[in-house]
Amino acid sequence: MKLQTGYIYHIKDEFFNIMDDKNLMMNHERGRKRPTYFAIKDKNILWFIPLSSKVDKYKRIIDKKIKRYGFCNTILIRNVISKPCAILLQNAFPTLEKYIDHVHIANFVPTKVSAKLKEEILHNFKYIMKLKKKGINLFFADIDKILEKLNQLK
After folding, report:
1. CB of 49 within 8 A of CB of 41?
2. Nearby residues of 54 by Cβ (< 8 Å), 6 or more positions away
3. Theoretical Cys-Cys bridge with 23: which of 64, 82, 135, 141, CB 3.0 to 4.6 Å?
4. What's the pLDDT tens digit per position in 72-126?
5. Rg of the chain's alpha carbons, rounded to an integer?
């Protein structure tokens, strides 16, 4: 499967079972697929950012962050597939191509976000990654541990 930045994907259960990180988003109940994920291809690393339909929940979190810090760039509320969606940059994690289940399909075509939204997500993600390199970690999952495990699984 050729992964493309800006498209929406689903991840195999196997990845989450192997990683065993309590901070990765959990499987939906009643047999539905895990959340959909915005994909970023960064050299040899694939990054996935969860998307959530629980917009009201995340609006409250955004409001708290804005009240405390004056801004929030770890969660975005934007339209994806013509519906409001929470884009959870703080929940991003790396994975390998072999753990991609499939591209998300809507109206019989692979789903991608608009070019403008793609650039906004990439800008915020790069900023959060720069902070991580400076010792300020805004990611919930232990991405260093996940990267280490992925290197062992290659």
Report:
1. no
2. 86
3. 141
4. 999 999 999 889 999 999 999 999 999 999 899 888 889 999 999 999 999 999 9
5. 15
